[in-house]
Amino acid sequence: MAKDEEDDLLPDKDAAKGFYAKYEPKEILGRGISSTVRRCIEKETGKEFAAKIIDLGATTESGETNPYHMLEATRQEISILRQVMGHPYIIDLQDVFESDAFVFLVFELCPKGELFDYLTSVVTLSEKKTRTIMRQIFEGVEYIHAKSIVHRDLKPENILLDENHNVKITDFGFAKQLQEGEKLTNLCGTPGYLAPETLKCNMFEGSPGYSQEVDIWACGVIMFTLLVGCPPFWHRKQMVMLRNIMEGKYSFTSPEWADISEDPKDLIRKCLVVDPAQRITVKEVLRHPFFNQMLFEQNIDGLKRSLSTKSRRMSRITEIALLRKQSRFNARKKFQFAILVIRAVIRIRRLRFTAEPLHVEEAIRDPYRVKVLRKVIDGCAFRVYGHWVKKGEGQNRAALFENTPRTELHALYINNLSR
């Protein structure tokens, strides 16, 4: 029997009576190495949920089968999920069922799927949309860190979107609760999102270890990817990619960055600092100007000079001001006037974002220079070739443009980083 056909089979109902009595399993939503995720319906209420069915006897990436180790790891994940549940941007664990061979975790259903899939469909996100998503991610991370927990595997595939496109941080399989002052040294996570201090633990003896700062680094990688559609450190030679991470070597020189303001770039720089002691904290992130935009930022010194007290324009303004001061207060008119002022301010602010006229000759000569055309071209490319992207440890959008097969990074770490 083919593996996919085996995965389609539901676990023995006699071994999981509690789950089947309460929920009706439906179609498969996704698969992992040792688990299958299905949509399920609560029989009593008709509400939809997502059931993660973990096979305790499954073969791991290393080729081993250890049901006891799998059960202990799952119970640790459940413990952490119960500590962080209740936050609006963290996945809620609804129910848990255990049998001799399987563990059933019932989560809230996120119908919009993974952030990665959403990004693949839209190619890049605007600054405004990125601000919304990243604020939610950072607020979730702040809550996790307040519980002395480090996630260790933040990436677009582990961030789900609910029906309102709000984020839900999920997959706490690598998460760890820290004791005061505790540092971790084991290598886990996804290669492109690993922080330099994590890699150093597996390259140099006596490395001090890592802590919650690795989540901030991963968030910086996610933010970079959302804005321009590709990760900051990727290279088709895996060891070059790892060296780029170790050195914090990335740039804002690609054409996509020409349309992006300085605030998001500054925040990314502060998240991707190689020294974790100098890296921005999650509380500092949420106070960053990128998340606290002023309504009006233009320099109006020139306007002030033009409105000297002796000018005719200033005299007219003074006259109008005196008339308004002498007139009887009218709440309705004052409210309407305030609306007009706000509209005017917003329009002035948007002037610098107004697109310049585009001539046909210029579009033919250099279509990729124009942001709108660039997004259309990239969007079409990903719709045509998007199914080639491999999900999992080696997954990367940049893989669409490779001409040679990729090697598995897990084996690369074993062979190179532990020497």
UniProtKB/TrEMBL annotation:
Spell out the InterPro entries in the cross-references. Kinase-like_dom_sf, Phosph_kin_gamma, Prot_kinase_dom, Protein_kinase_ATP_BS, Ser/Thr_kinase_AS
> Gene3D superfamilies annotated for this entry?
Phosphorylase Kinase, domain 1 (3.30.200.20), Transferase(Phosphotransferase) domain 1 (1.10.510.10)
Domain of life from the UniProt record: Eukaryota
Q: Summarize where ATP binds, as residue positions.
A: K52
Provide the reaction this enzyme catalyses. Answer: 2 ATP + phosphorylase b = 2 ADP + phosphorylase a
Q: Which organism is it from?
A: Drosophila mauritiana
Protein kinase domain segment(s): 23-291
Top EC category: transferase
The record, for CDD domains, names: STKc_PhKG (cd14093)
What is the name of this protein? Answer: phosphorylase kinase
* The protein's Enzyme Commission number: 2.7.11.19
Q: Name one GO cellular component term.
A: phosphorylase kinase complex
MF GO annotations: ATP binding; calmodulin binding; phosphorylase kinase activity
GO biological process assignments? glycogen metabolic process
Keywords associated with the record? ATP-binding, Calmodulin-binding, Carbohydrate metabolism, Glycogen metabolism, Kinase, Nucleotide-binding, Serine/threonine-protein kinase, Transferase
State a single Pfam family of this protein: Pkinase
- Describe its partners and assembly state: Hexadecamer of 4 heterotetramers, each composed of alpha, beta, gamma, and delta subunits. Alpha (PHKA1 or PHKA2) and beta (PHKB) are regulatory subunits, gamma (PHKG1 or PHKG2) is the catalytic subunit, and delta is calmodulin.
The UniProt entry's sequence similarity note says:
Belongs to the protein kinase superfamily.
